[in-house]
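Per your request, structure below.
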């Protein structure tokens, strides 16, 4: 067996690979690499990539940063869809297409910008996105639009766990749905987001119960966990 390093990964091939000509070996490596790279971009994604490369070659950087990630969390991931909808008429004119394709071009562009923002901001950007999601959840809580509104004045651990899990599942589901493009992709992301959100949300009251009351300057105090802790980025995958 021989081991090749392709795109930073070790790939094992049988000894017959060593008997191939250099051209055949290169062809085999290229074929393996093509499968590792995933599907090629569609025409909308490729247009977004080409547009960004063209702008960068002229010294124009559209890269978004922390503010965009904060907004992404605060809108539960809907910012890209909203911005794409607003830019659809312009894309229709630029590409000479109808509303559906115009939206696809605009959405691919926003996805490209958001993807770059995530690469550029890293863990701090993830924290900003989580903060935005917390702001959105807090607003829903204050408006009485969460299951916490149905709890008693002094709910038990079971009630708080169920309520927190249900609220976070709802938040994660909406955020996941907003991350997709096709209905199938959105549905899959929504399910994944809801599942992850439920785990996060249900775990918070239990973690608070495990930690128990703490003494602060001689007085006992307890931590009341928030039910809205699942960020919009909990389902990305992109």
């Amino acid at each position: 067996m021989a081991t090749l390093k392709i795109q930073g990964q070790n790939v094992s091939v049988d000894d017959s690979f060593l008997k191939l000509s250099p051209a055949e070996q290169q062809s085999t490596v290229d074929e393996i690499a093509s499968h590792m790279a995933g599907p090629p971009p569609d025409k909308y994604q490729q247009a977004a990539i080409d547009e960004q490369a063209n702008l960068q070659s002229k010294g124009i950087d559209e890269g978004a940063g922390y503010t965009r990630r904060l907004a992404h969390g605060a809108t539960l991931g809907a910012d890209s869809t909203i911005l794409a909808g607003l830019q659809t008429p312009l894309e229709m004119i630029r590409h000479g297409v109808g509303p559906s394709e115009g939206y696809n071009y605009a959405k691919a562009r926003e996805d490209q910008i958001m993807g770059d923002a995530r690469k550029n901001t890293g863990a701090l950007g993830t924290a900003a996105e989580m903060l935005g999601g917390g702001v959105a959840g807090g607003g829903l809580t204050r408006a009485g639009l969460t299951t916490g509104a149905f709890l008693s004045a002094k709910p038990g651990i079971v009630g708080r766990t169920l309520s927190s899990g249900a609220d976070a599942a709802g938040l994660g589901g909406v955020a996941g749905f907003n991350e997709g493009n096709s209905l199938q992709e959105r549905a899959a992301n929504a399910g994944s987001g809801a599942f992850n959100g439920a785990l996060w949300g249900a775990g918070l009251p239990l973690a608070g119960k495990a930690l128990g009351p703490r003494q602060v300057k001689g007085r006992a105090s307890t931590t009341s966990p928030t039910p809205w802790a699942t960020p919009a980025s909990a389902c990305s995958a992109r």
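The first strand starts at residue 2 and ends at 6.

Regards,
D.
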